[in-house]
Specification:
It is a single chain. By secondary structure, this protein is an alpha+beta fold. It has three domains: 99 residues, Butyryl-Coa Dehydrogenase, subunit A, domain 1, CATH 1.10.540.10; 92 residues, Butyryl-CoA Dehydrogenase, subunit A, domain 2 (Beta Barrel); 155 residues, Butyryl-CoA Dehydrogenase, subunit A, domain 3 (Up-down Bundle), CATH 1.20.140.10. Helix content is 48%, strand content 15%. A hairpin with a 2-residue loop joins strand 2 and strand 3. Helix 4 runs antiparallel to helix 7, helix 7 packs parallel to helix 9 and helix 7 runs antiparallel to helix 10. The two termini are 33 Å apart.
Length: 393
């Protein structure tokens, strides 16, 4: 067991803010090379960003959801890909804290351990003596290129049918396929990983429905811990929204940085800031960013308040968490779209950050669990008195 001084929210946010110049410097390199720069990874590790959602008994900070939102927002102001990758590490890192304590001792023995993963079943887990043999592939594995372990989700046959399970697998047991050629979030290196006859001992396998439903895992040390009291999907939602909010803020900052020196071509406006159209654009985009912040913080505060108490999550609270996630994505994209439209033809050059920010926020909005329409429909379905049509709440 490790002991560590736990930094406050203000300290972690300050550390993230101090990283912005470095992350901005490497943002173009990350896009070109389709992976986060090693120096950025090392700086994030040194700042303790990867330890925020790890158990305190293993040197983690057990940071709350609001801290995650504020830290990820600072990172997103610098580079969406880096912020997204850090946010992704928080989710399977939290999931690893649900496995039996001896498994955690093994996984968290690596200083600064980074765990990637996905919630989508991509393979089969065949039962064998002592565990399962996993075969399959998992796409969109953000952070895989710098990870030590991966949480894989596979379908395991049972006497009554089949059940999704999540398993902890060392990255050394998986094959990485370099297929991340995309239009947005290019720097995340969200490659495909492949398992071929990988044996996973039984203690490193947990039923996914138990985790999704917030019934805890197999860790005695985590039982009753505020960190692991909330169910998986609200936790994952709160982990993700800060990076998206940061993209909206980055778009505004990029726009205002260029504003004083820009005129509106084919008009008599010597400065774009003199045009009433510009006033309407920046006001509307800023208000949308403010609205995105409201939903991000409401989501974080819900997760934190429920973690601090013993009351069970209601169905409406679960789906509202997904709705808030979708609202942040939609509003952030709308804000970025306005700033990009107002940025003129010169903004399509690759050395102008707004074009990268726009592509990144578009990619986020296409994510299956973050898509605004999917999340809003789910919320409305439950508000109308129907049962949810998904396990992922």
């Amino acid at each position: 067991m490790l002991t560590t001084d736990v930094p406050t929210r203000e300290q972690l946010v300050h550390r993230a803010a101090e990283l912005r110049p470095l992350l901005r410097k490497h943002a173009a390199w990350a896009e070109e090379n389709r992976r986060i720069h090693d120096e950025s990874i090392e700086a994030l590790a040194d700042a303790g960003i990867f330890r925020m959602r790890l158990p305190a008994r293993h040197g983690g900070f057990e940071s709350d959801a609001r801290t995650m939102v504020e830290v990820a927002s600072e990172l997103g102001r610098a580079d969406g890909s880096t912020a997204w990758t850090a946010s992704v590490y928080w989710i399977p890192g939290w999931m690893a804290g649900l496995f039996p304590d001896p498994v955690q001792d093994e996984v968290f023995a690596t200083p600064g351990v980074r765990i990637c993963g996905t919630l989508s079943p991509g393979g089969m887990a065949a039962p064998v003596d002592g565990g399962v043999v996993v075969n399959g592939q998992w796409k969109f594995i953000s952070g895989a290129l710098h990870a030590h372990w991966q949480v894989v989700v596979a379908i395991q046959p049972t006497p009554g049918g089949a059940m999704p399970v999540m398993a902890l697998v060392p990255m050394a047991d998986l094959t990485v396929v370099d297929d991340w050629h995309t239009a947005g979030l290019k720097g995340t290196g969200s490659v495909t990983t492949v398992a071929q006859n990988v044996f996973v001992p039984a203690e490193r396998v947990l039923p996914l429905p138990v985790v999704v439903q917030g019934q805890g895992g197999a860790s005695q040390a985590a039982a009753g811990s505020p960190l692991h009291r909330p169910p998986l999907l609200p936790v994952a939602s709160a982990s993700s929204v800060g990076a998206v909010l940061g993209l909206a803020r980055a778009a505004g900052e990029a726009f205002f940085e260029r504003l004083p020196d820009r005129k509106i071509t084919y008009t008599d406006y010597a400065s774009q800031r003199e045009a009433p159209l510009t006033h309407l654009q920046v006001a509307e985009a800023t208000l949308k960013t403010d609205q995105a912040e409201f939903h991000a913080l409401r989501l974080a505060d819900l997760v934190d308040s429920k973690a601090a108490g013993e009351a069970p999550w209601t169905l409406q609270e679960r789906v509202r968490a997904r709705a808030d996630l979708g609202a942040v994505c939609r509003l952030a994209k709308e804000a970025v779209d306005i700033f990009q439209t107002a940025s003129g033809g010169s903004s399509i050059y690759l050395d102008v950050p707004i074009q990268r920010i726009s592509r990144d926020v578009q990619a986020v909005n296409l994510h299956a669990l973050m898509h605004p329409d999917t999340n809003t429909e789910l919320y409305g379905r439950v508000l109308c008195g129907l049962e949810p049509n998904t396990l992922y709440i």
